[in-house]
Write a structure and sequence with these properties.
By secondary structure, the protein is an alpha/beta fold. 25% of the residues lie in helices and 27% in strands. The protein contains 10 helices and 20 strands. The chain has an 8-stranded mixed beta sheet, sandwiched between helices. The chain has a 6-stranded mixed beta sheet with strand order 1-5-6-4-3-2. Helix 9 packs parallel to helix 10. The protein is globular, with a radius of gyration of 23 Å.
């Protein structure tokens, strides 16, 4: 804005916080100019330090003092990240740690709702229909309320300062390593093996892993080393009485309850499709970005022994794990391939193969960036009957929702889960059916 007042990094300004934005950042205005502010809550008045002001349309700032506090403000669950610390020395990874848990979930619901409206093109009536008339409610994971959202992380990555060897998390929105003496979001087993105060020169990252049915691990990556730690180290994870073998350095949900929450949610979504006579167990069903086979197993529990499902994953180690974890499901196959390449091959497959897929259901759990335009377009052309989409980013989900709607799908149901307490992240499950 041409008439916006000049702001420079380091300036201190007072702001009235009016809303929440994607990424855990709040919104204010300073003489007409939008300012994105961290470490605050809508409804508060704060004194903030400008951290970025290069663009005329907006600036960024960090709260340094709360002048009028929200009734939902709480002492930060992690002193290393509290507003009382200088912003440059605040640990990152718990950006909602100063907010009461119910308000955190309300804010996450607001962000998801805004994304679906703005980027997904959905109206309030469509969202209400997809949520059973309740609107978006972010569901808590079992045990989190009782524990105040603490002790849930079973996987934590720490970094080592290249000059001092100090090991810790990065500072918020920075690559500066912060020395800490606690990790309140981590499980007790993680806290037990964490190298607090131990310099580790020459180390790049330290991954702490606490499997649900195995001993905890510390995986160290040395500076310049290309090998991925833990790629040949198998650990056991237990999900609702099922055992899964997973590479200790591979992908697995970080919340202790997340695997079972998502397993159950996908299973129930498939059961709903079965009840509506929309699911064909014998068709070509897919589990894309399948990892170690968790969600394909959920499809199997719902679809029964007649289910045919192919789990597609780019990581060969994870594919091997999926083959083992799905071995009791006779109709399951685990394939190592990039999802876009696998779908491209299906697009050139003979008509009978394409027809079986049109009757099938696709479960997909893409990375944070979403499935993206190419994969969505390929799925639109292949035209499976149903899409069961697990998303960890509301904007990515909303954009893919708009694409799927343009390809002839409608949003049939939507659920959201708070699997990352005291952070801005959430998980969502969207079911799309071919109109």
């Amino acid at each position: 804005m041409a008439d916006s007042p000049a702001l420079a990094p380091g300036d201190t300004i007072e702001l009235d916080i009016t809303g929440i934005a994607h990424g855990g950042i709040c919104v204010a205005r300073h003489e007409g100019r939008v300012v994105f502010v961290s470490d605050t809550i809508p409804g508060e008045r704060v004194r903030a330090r400008v951290t970025e002001a290069r663009k005329k349309s907006f600036a960024r700032a960090t709260t340094i003092e709360v002048l009028n506090a929200s009734e939902d403000r709480r002492p930060h669950i992690w002193p290393a990240a509290a507003v009382e610390r200088d912003p440059e020395h605040r640990a990152g990874g718990a950006e909602f740690g100063h907010i009461a848990l119910p308000r955190q979930r309300t804010l996450k619901a607001e962000v998801l709702l805004d994304a679906l409206r703005r980027f997904g093109g959905l109206g309030d009536e469509e969202i209400a229909a997809a949520t059973g008339g309740a609107g978006i409610v972010v569901e808590a994971a079992p045990g989190d309320d009782e524990a105040n959202g603490l002790g849930w992380r079973t996987r934590v990555r720490l970094h080592s300062d290249s000059e001092t060897g100090t090991v810790g998390p990065y500072a918020a929105r920075s690559r500066r390593v912060i020395r800490v003496d606690s990790l309140p979001l981590a499980s007790e087993a993680i806290g037990f093996i964490a190298p607090f105060g131990e310099p580790m020169p020459g180390v790049d990252t330290v991954d702490l892993v606490a499997p649900s049915a195995d001993d905890p691990r510390m995986l160290i990556t040395v500076e310049g080393e290309r090998a991925r730690p833990g790629e040949n180290d198998l650990v056991r994870e237990s999900v609702g009485g099922r055992q899964f073998l997973v590479r200790s350095g591979g992908f697995w949900q970080v919340h202790r309850e997340a695997p079972e929450v998502l397993f159950t949610a996908v299973r129930d979504a498939i059961l709903d499709l079965i009840a509506d006579d929309r699911f064909d167990a014998g068709a070509t069903n897919l589990d894309l970005y399948g990892g170690a086979g968790l969600l394909a197993a959920a499809m199997g529990e719902a679809g029964g022994p007649a289910l045919k499902v192919t789990s597609v994953e780019a990581d060969p180690g994870a594919t091997d794990d999926a083959a083992e974890n799905l071995s009791e499901l006779v109709g399951a196959l685990a394939v190592t391939s990039r999802v876009d390449r696998y779908l491209a091959d299906l697009l050139s497959a003979p008509a009978p193969v394409r027809d079986r897929l049109r009757r099938g259901t696709v479960v997909l759990d893409p990375p944070r960036s979403g499935a993206g335009g190419e994969v969505c377009a390929q799925l639109g052309e292949l035209a499976p009957a149903n899409l069961v989409y697990v998303a960890c980013d509301p904007v990515a989900l909303a954009r893919d929702t708009a694409t799927f709607r343009g390809l002839g799908y409608e949003l049939a149901s939507l659920r959201a889960f708070d699997l990352f307490p005291h952070t801005h992240h959430l998980e969502a499950l969207a079911v799309f059916t071919r109109a």
